[in-house]
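Revision sheet: structure tokens.
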Amino acid sequence: MENAMALLSLENPVFATYVIAAALMVLKVMGQGWMTVYRMQKTNSGLASPEDVQSGLLNKAPDPAQLEINDYVDRSRRMHRNDLENIPAFWVAGFLFVMVDPALWLAQALMYGFVATRLAHFLAYATRQTHEVRATFYTIGSLVVIYMAVHVLWVAIA
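Predicted:
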């Protein structure tokens, strides 16, 4: 138990790496949601639910057309969904990875590499790059998470 507590201390550089990467990914997930809201407000469209077209402080002139898909808004919504499909697995695998006490260089390469791939994926999606470009960044990030999970299993089983 004492060793586990030492691993979960900011004095452990592997855990500090995880904390930084995980916190950046929290900001990415939450920021993407705010980006979607910004885009809905900017275009006054792309609303998601029928009750959103009721008169209120933020929607003074509701119109059923506001429920139609707006690619500018929906693109942000798709990026958010992609984050929610990928980042939680990183949070779990990264935490478990810390618990098996990997080499610092490996933890930094994998965790900061994952953060970099999510940033690159965001930029590729936001600038309408091809699927192949987005898929490349997704694949690298996915392989990072898979490697961490397999590494954890390998250490736990051994």
